[in-house]
Amino acid sequence: MKERTRKAVVVGGGITGLTAAYFLQKHAQEQGLPIHITLIEAAHRLGGKIQTLQKDGFVIDRGPESFLSFKDSLEKLAKELGIEEKLVRSAKGDWFVIADDQLQPIPSGTVMGVPTKFGTFLTSDLCSWSGKVRATGDLFLPRTPVVGDQSLGKFIRRRFGKELVENLLEPLLSGVNGGDIDRMSLEAAFPQFAEVEKKHRSLIVGMKKTNAASRAEVYSRNEEDVFQTFEGGMQTLVEALEKKLNGCAVLKGVKVEGLKKEAGKAILELNNASSIEADQVIFALPHSKLQPLFEPYGLMNGMKDMPMTSIATVSMAFPEDAITAGSGTGFVVARNSDFAITACSWVNRKWPSMAFPKGKKLLRAYIGRVGDEAVVDLSDHEIEKIVLADLRKTMQIEGNPDFTVVTRWSQAMPQYVVGHKERVAEAKMELEKEFPMVQVVGSSFGGFDMADCADQGEAAARQLMERLQV
Question: Residue ranges of the Amine oxidase domain (predicted)?
Answer without folding.
Answer: 15-464
